[in-house]
Design goal:
Helix content is 56%, strand content 11%. It is of the alpha/beta class and 209 residues long. It has a five-stranded parallel sheet with strand order 2-1-3-4-5, with helices on both faces. The longest helix is centred in the N-terminal third of the chain and has 22 residues. It is elongated, with a radius of gyration of 18 Å.
């Protein structure tokens, strides 16, 4: 089993083959970190490129991410958490009143596949819950999602709540979702806007670099 084969199984979203290949490598003494970086993450890197070009779609990407996550779960017992390089911490959540999570979940999967530690708060998250999470986890980035125009004000409320809690200057805020625009991001004082999961990953990379 070569790293390129494992990457290809991730690219194909083949959960069973990724698991089989990962187990085989572990049983044959392959460096666990190399399995993650050169096999699993390398495959998701290609997925990210294809998705951004429009050559892959959300269901395919989520299947690939599921395959990669399954492989990572098998490798984790063989390495200490401290040995897994983290690019930084990102808090993600869908704002108050909004129960949509497919887009958010895709961003979470893509971020995790790129080495970010993600705290996924879920859906229908109030501004205070975002503030509490920032205080607890001390992330570099907070990402808010909305799919309804009626829930978009929750993004502005959260930014104001962060300011009131004296946390605004400690975290970068990015927003996204179908009705969200760059103009709206600028209007409410967000640090950035991501139109898709690939852009969100790039934005986090720039924020944390």
């Amino acid at each position: 089993m070569e790293f390129s084969e494992l990457s290809d199984y991730v690219l194909k979203g083949n959960v069973e083959k990724v698991a089989e290949g990962t187990k085989w490598m572990l049983e044959h003494g392959t460096d666990p970190l190399r399995i993650i970086n050169e096999g699993l993450i390398a495959g998701m890197n290609t997925v990210g490129v294809l998705f951004k070009k429009g050559d892959m779609f959300v269901p395919e990407v989520m299947r690939c991410a599921k395959a990669m996550s399954g492989g990572v779960a098998l490798v984790k017992p063989y390495i200490a958490d401290a040995d897994i390089p983290s690019r930084g911490t990102v808090i993600m959540g869908t704002v108050r009143g909004d129960l949509h999570d497919i887009g958010k979940n895709l961003v979470v999967m893509m971020l995790e596949s790129q080495g970010f530690q993600v705290i996924d708060l879920g859906v229908n998250i109030t501004s205070q819950q975002f503030v509490d999470a920032v205080g607890k986890h001390q992330p570099q980035v907070i990402g808010m999602s909305a799919l309804l125009t009626t829930t978009m004000p929750g993004m502005s409320e959260t930014i104001k709540a962060l300011e009131k809690a004296n946390l605004r200057d400690k975290v970068k805020v990015m927003i996204g979702g179908a009705p969200v625009t760059l103009a709206f991001a600028n209007q409410i004082g967000a640090d950035g806007y991501a139109s898709d999961a690939g852009s969100a990953v790039e934005l986090c990379g720039r924020f944390i670099a």
